[in-house]
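Q: Please design a sequence for this.
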């Protein structure tokens, strides 16, 4: 099986993964009562990873494939059932973090507003036995804040430090995997060193929240609800594993479609609930914004921040200019008739290929590129609360030993 964007006729390694998976324990059948599967189930059952297509001859290994597919509803219910047993030493605190990109999916499914869909989803998860439900929008904010600071550092030191610019966004796991396993140098030094929102949320839950609750990280089972299957692969990265506690920052990723399957299986009325807060009281209207931005908003927020910090220009509206196709667009900032900033959004493998080709030829005109493995304009609400009321301090990337792509240099000042 291959996705529609794959450039290969078939992926032999992907077939091997599917064959290996067939001998592993089956996941619960949530469709036995329905002859025809819904679009959500078809998506969930497809098990197509865009990283498989992007990586070509460096596809996901059989071992990785098995570990990815073990992140499913069965694992979720295994933990729920453990908590029902008398052996309290085996109990886990179940914490679920919901990606902001998933909420519009549930809103459309329930025919509700994003805010009401969030309450419905939170109430359902808690009715199953989940102890805490968090909105990971705050992790998006932390990631953007750190990325902003890193871009300013790179821009100001571009003459002194090789590979400072362009800077590529680092939040898309399919893109990062392709860059690491296939492209290597000279691409990887250009990737932002900020953690993705998923892994920042993992650190917050397994570190900050664990200490707040006086819990060992391995006593928390942390689930991420995300719209992207590649997020399952990202959760397995060794960068985000603490050996001393034998604990990953994210234990399991469930897609929006998988959660819908569980909800359709249960078919029971649940009381709505408001998501929990990691940092005390936060106004609801500040955590779920009505405005939508492209992807997680990296390009727009970094562009506006750089315009203000570097050129003392306050940008209110951003105008995109489509180039060869709708998935490759650019924005520019002019001052005194000269273009001083040129940013681009490159979505999909075709545009990534063209972008890398230009970089290798030394004809790359952009200072920053928001890269997504998936084609199409993704959008998600972001929270203005963090940027107004919290401070995040990032170490200058060049002041420390070199970091792997995706490794964070985030220091949080929680006041």
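A: Design:
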């Amino acid at each position: 099986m291959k996705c529609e964007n794959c450039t290969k006729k078939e992926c032999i390694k992907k077939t091997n993964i599917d064959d290996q998976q067939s001998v592993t324990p089956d996941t619960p059948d949530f469709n036995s009562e329905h002859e025809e599967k819904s679009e959500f189930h078809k998506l969930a059952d497809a098990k197509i990873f865009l990283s498989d297509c992007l990586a070509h001859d460096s596809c996901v290994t059989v071992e990785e494939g098995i570990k990815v597919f073990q992140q499913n509803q069965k694992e979720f219910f295994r933990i729920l059932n453990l908590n029902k047993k008398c052996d309290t030493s085996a109990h886990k605190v179940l914490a679920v973090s919901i990606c902001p990109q998933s909420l519009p999916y549930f809103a459309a499914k329930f025919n509700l507003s994003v805010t009401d869909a969030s309450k419905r989803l939170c109430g359902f998860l808690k009715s199953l036995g989940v102890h805490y439900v968090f909105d990971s929008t705050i992790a998006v904010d932390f990631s953007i804040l750190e990325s902003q600071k890193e871009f300013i550092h790179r821009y100001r030191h571009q003459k002194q430090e090789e590979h400072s610019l362009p800077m590529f966004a680092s939040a898309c796991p399919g893109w990062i995997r392709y860059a690491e396993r296939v492209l290597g140098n000279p691409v990887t030094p250009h990737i932002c060193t900020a953690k993705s929102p998923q892994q920042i949320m993992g650190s917050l839950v397994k570190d900050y929240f664990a200490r707040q609750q006086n819990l060992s990280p391995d006593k928390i089972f942390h689930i991420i609800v995300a719209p992207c299957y590649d997020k399952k692969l990202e959760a397995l990265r060794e960068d985000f594993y603490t050996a001393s506690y034998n604990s990953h920052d994210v234990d399991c990723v469930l897609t929006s479609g998988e959660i819908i399957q569980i909800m359709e299986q249960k078919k029971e009325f649940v009381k709505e609930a408001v998501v929990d807060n990691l940092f005390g009281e936060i106004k609801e209207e500040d955590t779920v914004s009505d405005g939508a931005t492209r992807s997680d908003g990296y390009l727009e927020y970094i562009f506006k921040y750089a315009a203000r910090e570097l050129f003392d220009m306050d940008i209110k509206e951003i105008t995109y200019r489509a180039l060869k196709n709708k998935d490759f667009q650019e924005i520019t900032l002019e001052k005194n008739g000269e273009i001083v900033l040129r940013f681009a959004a490159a979505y999909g493998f075709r545009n990534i290929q063209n972008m890398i080709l230009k970089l290798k030829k030394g004809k790359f005109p952009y200072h920053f590129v928001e890269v997504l493995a998936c084609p199409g304009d993704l959008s998600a609400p972001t929270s203005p609360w963090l940027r107004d009321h919290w401070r995040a301090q990032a170490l200058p990337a060049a002041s420390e030993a070199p970091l792997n792509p995706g490794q964070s240099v985030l220091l949080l000042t929680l006041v």
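Q: Thanks. Anything notable?
A: The two ends are 50 Å apart (CA to CA). DSSP finds 16 helices and 15 strands in the chain.
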